Structures are given as structure tokens and as C-alpha cells.
Amino acid sequence: MPELRENEQKTLLALEQLKGKASVEQIVDVSGLAHAAVMRGVLSLTEDKLIVTHEQKQTLVSLSEEGSYHAQHGLPERRLIDSLAKLGGDAAVNSVIEDAGLEKKFVSVALGWLNRKGWATIKQGNLNPLKTPPFGDDEKLIQLLTKKTPLIVEDLSLELQKSIPNLKGRKLVEIEEKTLRELELTDDGWALVKQGIIVQQEVSQLTPELIRTGNWRNVKLRRFDVTAPGPVSFPGKIHPVQQIIQQVKEIFLEMGFTEIRGDMVETAFWNFDALFQPQDHPARDMVDTFYLANPKQGKLPKKGVVDAVAATHENGWTTGSRGWEYKWSPQEAKKLVLRTHTTATTIRYLTEHKEPPVKVFSVDRVYRNEKLDYKHLAEFHQIEGIIMDCKVTLRDLMGTLKEFYKKLGLEKVQFWPSYFPYTEPSLQSTVYVPELKNWVELCGMGIFRPEVLAPLGVKHPVLAWGGGLERLILLKLGIEDIRLLYKNDLGWIRRNPVCQQ
Ligand code: PHE
Fold first, then answer.
1. Confidence bin at 400 (pLDDT 50/70/90)
2. Whose CA is nearest to atom 9 of ligand 1?
3. Which residue range forms the structural domain that includes residue 252?
4. Among 143, 180, 246, 323, which residue's CB has the most CB atoms within a 10 Å radius?
5. Cα(446) to centroid of ligand 1, in Å?
6. Does the beta carbon of 343 sit less than 6 angstroms from any atom of ligand 1?
7. Structure confidence at residue 227 (pLDDT)
8. What pLDDT, on a 0 to 100 scale, did the predictor assign at position 280?
9. Residue 3's pLDDT band (boundaries 50, 70, 90)?
């Protein structure tokens, strides 16, 4: 004998009580089980051949709104013929209508049916009765429907059934198809219930109480089918981009860095000039950088710093460099931009924190005037970190980066010579991505030049690196189109795991 669960036992007992045949709804009523529990029971009982399901198609007929109205007042043709009889059996159409109190909208229908049913004819505006009209099947059905609605068509007499198409054509009744499921005990099922079923309560959750009292020994623990599909749920979760931002921040914190943040709107001074980027540098072009229209200008820092930066650009100041050899313009430096890199925030911070050691990072938004495509966004994130200390070298920078990538799960790293106006030497790092079987550029880095540090009064070497965060996210999530990250594609967000590994 198959081992039966509580809901299966109760379903069988209910069926027995209902003489071996019943609908699911009846079983729900008798057993007190939820509809879903009965359905689950039915499924396994059918599998065990203890019950069978009969499906029966049923047609239901019910009164429409207009049908209900006529059910109360009589069919319009009936109302006319009754009034005609009352008026002596031959009368002007208008007076019959008036006597019947027939609503205007029903008049032509009523006259039409008087004619079709052969109850009366119209001659020169007069209504002449033809015969004593019998109470038709259509009227009988309407009358029945006022007592009980809906009715099962298959249970009606053939005559009444025949009147349905007509009433449906007049839109007085509505028809609905239904499938009735009836469950029936099989011989095996009967044999089982005859033996007697004692419903044993099942426990689906092992509580501390059950364990403490030792009562778990006495109860029947419900078996779970762990392979059965459960309902899909979409719990709230952190957006994949935010998850990775959090992960990157945690890595920096583990490595002893402190987070800094800065304004998204910066003066060109901090975004470019303080970083020894000449004022005619192509990156400063409107084509690449968003300039603010209103307000157009911001404030420059104190005169000493501005003068030193200006001199460094013009002739190298005291740094031993020749500078860029052009006339530096404070107007150009005052322009407000949406910061194009987080290095603007770094350098501002450094100016105010000149004492070693400094180990800070930021993960923040930057803006570039890019055409959007699968690889480029105009608004994105950069990861950036700096280390300032008495004796740090390029080796420390490479070591730190290696460690940083390792914590992100990227083990193979290479460093290549590169160029940035504000670092010397400058490097570019590439990491090997096994899934892509390829090397991918991630961060730029270097040691800030004396032309950057001297005007700000920073006396110790500063290791700096920075790069786009989205590129890293694409690698980690295995996607190719950067726009997907910000499209709010709910399907994609849902398919992403609650936790990135
Ligand atoms: N600011 C550079 C960029 O936007 C990255 C960088 C940061 C390079 C710090 C060197 C030092 O690509």
C-alpha cells in the first residue's frame, strides 16, 4: 500500500463520504482542505490509481441584463399581445403600445416578433390578432431562469434546449462552456477506504518544542520532495551594479584604504589644471567634456596654489620642468565641468592632506561626452585609489594593484608603459580573463609628477591608479552591452543572483 499523506487521506475519506464520486469543490467542502491541497492529493492519488478523474463538458445558460428585464416585465411581444386582447382584439398600433407601456427601444423588436411568431399582423396601422398565443418555450426558459441561474443546458428538455439559439440571438441569454471534473474512487480506492483510514496528522516543520519534548518520536514527519518545482519568487535585492560597487569598496577597506567622495561638478582647475593638463589639451574640448551652461564658472583655490599651478604650466616653476610654455588662463580654469575622472577628487583631497601616510579611494560617478554604444556611456563610474607615503615606489603600486585584482578574482596581471599628463612613470594594467581567454585593460596608474605635487605643496611620492568600473562589471557578469546595466530590464535584474560570488 502506498504511504499516504494527510491531504491524500482526507481526500479519500471525503470521497468515501460522498459515496465515491464528487467534484473537487465538494471535497474541499467536506474535508476542510484548501483547494490546492486537494488538487495535490488528487494528483498523487491518481498516480497511485486510487481514484480516477472524469471530465465532463457542461454548457451553462444564464439571463443577460436585458433578459432579466424581460423576465420581470414579459417579452415585449407578449406585452403587446396582452394589451391588444385587453383593448378588444383589434386596435391601432400606437394605442396598443401605449397601453402596454412599451419602451420605445423595444417597439420594432416587439412588432417583428409578433409577426414572426404569427401572433398578429399589422394592416393600415391597426394590429389584428391571429390566434391565442401559447406560452412559448422561450418564455418557459426565461421563467425557469428567474428561479435558478445558471442552468445546465444538457439537463433541460429538448424543447427548452431548442429555444436557446433564438434567445441567444436576441441577446437575452448568455452561454458559458465549463469543464466539470468529477473524481471517483477506483476499486483499489474503495478497498483502501473500506480497510479504514485513520488520519494521522503530519508535521511539516520540526520545531524546537518537538525536539525538546521528544515528541518528534510520536509524530509523523512529512516527507518533502526536494525535486518538486516550487513557486518562483523574486525577492527584492540589490542591483548588480551596486553589489559590485560594494564588493570593490570592501576590498579597498580590507586593504586599509579610506573612502573619499567629491562633487560631480568641479572646476576645470581641479579636473585638469592641477593635474598638469595643458589648457589646449584635446580632452578639455567640448567634444569630450561636459561644461556647465549655468553657472558657467566656479571659484579657484587660494592665490598661492593658483599662481604655482599657472607658473608650472607656463615655465615649469621650481620643478625643473619647462612646463607647457603657453600663457595660462585663469578664466579657462574657472570653468565648471562634470568631472571627467575621479582624479579631480583625489587631487583636491591631497591638497588638504599633505601629511603621510595617505591611503584613500573612491568609487564614484564621472561624465564624458561620449556617443552611447555597447561599450560607452556618458555617465559611468570610476574606481580610484592613491597611496602617499615617504618611500613608496612603482613596485609598491604594482604590488597593490596585483593584490587588488586578486581579491576580485583576477589572478594574472600585466603592466605596460603608458602615458598620462599627470604621472611619470605611467602604466597601464591588463588582466587575463579566463572566460574570455583574453587580456583586458582595466586601470591606468603612475606616480604623480613633480609638476602636479610641487604647486600643491605635497612633498612625498604619490602612487595613483584609476579605471572604469563598468568594464569590470561586464567581465564579472559576463555581459557584452554596457547599456544593459542601466536599462532597468526587470527580467535581467531578476535573473541575476541575489549575491554575486
Ligand atoms: N584618471 C585616469 C583615467 O581617467 C586614470 C588614472 C588615475 C591614471 C590615476 C593615473 C593615475 O583614465
1. very high
2. 465
3. 244-495
4. 323
5. 8
6. yes
7. 86
8. 93
9. confident
- CA 360 to centroid of ligand 1, rounded, Å: 15
What atom of ligand 1 comes closest to residue 341's alpha carbon? 4
Residue 123 lies in a domain: no
pLDDT tens-digit readout, 161-199: 999 999 999 999 999 998 888 999 999 999 988 988 887
377 contacts 470 by C-beta, under 8 angstroms = yes
Total count of domains within the chain: 1
Distance CA 366, CA 37 (A): 55
Give domain status of residue 400, yes or no: yes
345 CA distance to ligand 1 middle (Å): 12
- Tell me whether residue 466 is in a domain: yes
Q: Taking residues 101-110, what's their average pLDDT?
A: 92
Provide the CATH number for the domain around residue 370. 3.30.930.10
Ligand 1 and 468: CB distance under 6 A:
no
**Is the distance from the beta carbon of residue 380 to the nearest atom of ligand 1 less than 6 Å?**
no
Ligand 1 pocket member 420 (CB < 6 A): yes
> What is this structure's pTM?
0.61
- The closest of 368, 163, 362 to 260, measured between CA atoms, is 362
User: According to the 3-state scheme, what is the secondary structure of 165-203?
Assistant: HHHHHCCCEEEEEEEEEEEEECHHHHHHHHHCCCCCCEE
200, pLDDT greater than 80? no
The minimum-distance atom of ligand 1 relative to the CA of 426 is 10
Q: Which of 260, 420, 472 to mutate to test the pocket of ligand 1 (most atoms within 8 A of CB)?
A: 420
Q: What percent of the chain has pLDDT over 70?
A: 99
Distance 15 CA to ligand 1 centre (A): 76
The C-alpha cell at 418 is 603608458
Please report, for residues 67, 235, 245, the alpha-carbon distance to residue 383 in angstroms, rounded to integers and kept in the order given.
Answer: 73, 29, 9
* Rounded-to-integer distance, Cα 434 and Cα 427, Å: 23
Judged on CB neighbours under 10 Å (0-12, 13-18, 19+), 178 is: exposed
Q: Which of 275, 343, 445 to mutate to test the pocket of ligand 1 (most atoms within 8 A of CB)?
A: 343
Task: Examine the pLDDT at 501 and tell me if it is beyond 80.
Answer: no
Direct distance between the N- and C-terminal alpha carbons of the chain, in angstroms, rounded to an integer = 47
Atom of ligand 1 nearest to the CA of 382: 4
Q: Give yes or no for residue 231 having a pLDDT over 70.
A: yes
The verdict on the CB of residue 445 being under 6 Å from ligand 1 is yes
Tell me what the mean pLDDT of segment 98-107 comes to.
Answer: 92
Task: Calculate how far, in angstroms, residue 464's C-alpha sits from the geometric centre of ligand 1.
Answer: 7
Give the pLDDT mean for 426-445.
92
Quote the pLDDT of residue 356: 94
Region for residue 149 given its phi and psi (left: phi exceeds 0; alpha: psi -120 to 50; beta: otherwise): beta
Atom 2 of ligand 1, nearest CA residue: 466
Q: Is 465 in the pocket of ligand 1 (CB under 6 A)?
A: yes
Assigned domain for 408 exists = yes
- What is the pLDDT at residue 478? 87
